[in-house]
Amino acid sequence: MESVKKKSIIEAATKSFALFGYKATTMDQVSKIAKVGKGTIYTYFATKEELLKEIINDISIEMNDVASKAIVPGNSFVSNFNAALNGIVEFQEQHELTIKLSQEVKEIGTPVVVDALQSLEDEICHFIEVHIVKAIERGELRQCEPKVTAFLMFKMYINLVNDWKDRHAPLPKQQVASLINQYFIEGLAKQTKS
């Protein structure tokens, strides 16, 4: 019974955060949507921030699952990188909460939300880092700093997919993949001796 109530609270908070943002959501709203007393929420979550962290953790697990399912054993690192990040970006674009939280960061800069979205980004970068290490071990990429490389690759991808379209026509996914390969991956490719 307790896990059902906790799940109901998490779902209600997710809905409220997606509709009103973190800052405008109150525990009263969450309790009404969840159909539980406000005290019940505090049984599971000491603060609204703790509740958001739990939701972000759940989203992180879902995103990791989406990215993992996009990876095809035997495909190149570049192909899998693009497939995984395409999946993550599509997930975020369809997930109302991440959209609302991103808007809140841009418009208000709520520190708790900034931290929450940063933790999502850190999870994505860690996912990429793990796959860079595997690609190095397979001899597909030359030695590099996997953590730094993952960060740079993620930022480049996000800038080409999201930020570029704020100023120019959106780039097709294949062109983004080609640009990442041209400007980034070819510099990491294992050097062949001629």
TrEMBL record:
Domain HTH tetR-type: 3-63
SUPFAM superfamilies membership: Homeodomain-like, Tetracyclin repressor-like, C-terminal domain
InterPro entries (UniProt xref): DNA-bd_HTH_TetR-type_CS (IPR023772), Homeodomain-like_sf (IPR009057), HTH-type_Tx_Regulator (IPR050624), HTH_TetR (IPR001647), Tet_transcr_reg_TetR-rel_C_sf (IPR036271)
UniProt key word Repressor: yes
Keyword Transmembrane helix found: no
A UniProt-annotated Pfam family: TetR_N
UniProt keyword list: DNA-binding, Repressor
Molecular function (Gene Ontology), one example: DNA binding
Source taxon at top rank: Bacteria
DNA-binding span(s): 26-45
Protein name: HTH-type transcriptional repressor Bm3R1
Originating organism: Halalkalibacter krulwichiae
